[in-house]
Design goal:
The chain is α/β, with parallel strands linked by helices and 209 residues long. The chain contains 5 helices and 10 strands. A 7-stranded mixed beta sheet has the order 3-7-6-5-4-9-10. A 3-stranded mixed beta sheet has the order 1-2-8, covered by helices on one side. The longest helix has 14 residues. The termini are far apart.
């Protein structure tokens, strides 16, 4: 569907969503349009599969009060230094599928956040390899990993997925955070996709005021 959208004539009416919507977020960023990565109507509800109250309050605050919630995490690899760049990203598998196309993610100077769901370790590694080798992550200022819900679930060592990602990402020599509150779990904090942000290993990722 991406090739049929008139990107040059779009306005700034908000696009909100995550997961497959990542393809729209990346394409909108390439067209210079800010969107919102966060819970969509499909996760509106009161069951255990829906976004939690904190996530909905974060989305409400962003849309109604123009107030951004920080994405907190822990330093996984790279230097413990503060970096700045446009905040972009989303679902790892979707972003990898865009590599090599006209809609590919352009991460130069950006802070890239990545999440995924129900993927084995080898596929997470393959998608990361595709982003690295295709140049999609070239020039990135920093990276943050959100929830990888159900990923690597068949590994004998529960820490293998995290260790595998660290080994692949360390050669980039940029700060990489782990455990951001975004993804397919109940905690899915909304953020404005494509706006200037700061990555501080001690404070997490925050949109610049």
């Amino acid at each position: 569907m991406l090739s049929g959208i008139p990107w040059d004539s779009l306005d700034n009416r908000p696009v909100i969503g995550f997961s497959d919507t990542t393809a729209l977020h990346i394409s909108l960023f390439n067209a210079g349009i800010v969107s919102v990565h966060g819970p969509g109507l499909v996760t509106l509800g009161a069951d255990e599969q829906s976004a939690d109250d904190f996530s909905w309050e974060a989305l409400r605050s962003l849309l109604c009060e123009d107030r951004d919630s920080p994405l907190t995490g822990q330093l996984l690899s790279g230097p413990a230094e503060v970096v700045r760049g446009n905040l972009i990203g989303g679902n790892l598998t979707v972003i990898a599928s865009l590599a090599g196309t006209r809609r590919a993610m352009k991460a130069d100077g950006a802070i890239v956040v990545l999440e995924d769901v129900n993927e084995p370790t080898y596929k997470i590694e393959r998608c990361l390899w595709q982003l690295i080798e295709s140049g999609a992550l070239a020039g990135a200022a920093g990276i943050g990993f959100g929830e990888l819900k159900g990923c690597g679930r068949n590994d004998e060592n529960p820490g293998y997925l995290k260790d595998a990602i660290r080994e692949m990402i360390e050669p980039l020599s940029i700060p990489v955070l782990w455990g951001l509150p975004i993804g397919h779990g109940r905690r899915n904090v909304a953020f404005r996709h494509g706006v200037p942000a700061t990555l501080d290993p001690a404070q997490g990722i925050s949109a610049c005021s």
